[in-house]
Amino acid sequence: MFQELKQEGPTNLPPTGLDGVIKVGGLHRWWSSDFIFSLPGYSNVYGVYGTRGLTLSGRMKHFPPGRLQDQFYLEGNLTVADKSNGCFLVEMQK
Fold first, then answer.
1. DSSP state at residue 16
2. What is the pTM of this model?
3. pLDDT tens profile 27-66
4. CB-facing half-sphere around the CA of 27: CA atoms within 13 A
5. Are 4 and 73 in contact (CB under 8 A)?
6. Contact 23, 42 (CB under 8 A)
7. Which end of the chain is more exposed for a tag (fewer CB within 10 A), N or C?
């Protein structure tokens, strides 16, 4: 009944247009998820989803070996993704 579900590997979320905006939907409020958004010609954006929403940064670091070794934490200037119609909008920078 109590188990940790984990999606490993890439999930392709196409940009919503030529402006490099990616729409992220289907997240449940009790989930926690880590994201790496990448798009050719744009800088990577790293995200952590939790009770505070989808927090984003251009920099991250992996936790050292141990219980959290498959996860990362955000560094630098943190922002919160805008939410529209139940979906988060992640803007990629060229």
1. S
2. 0.79
3. 777 777 888 888 888 899 999 998 889 999 999 999 999 9
4. 23
5. no
6. no
7. N
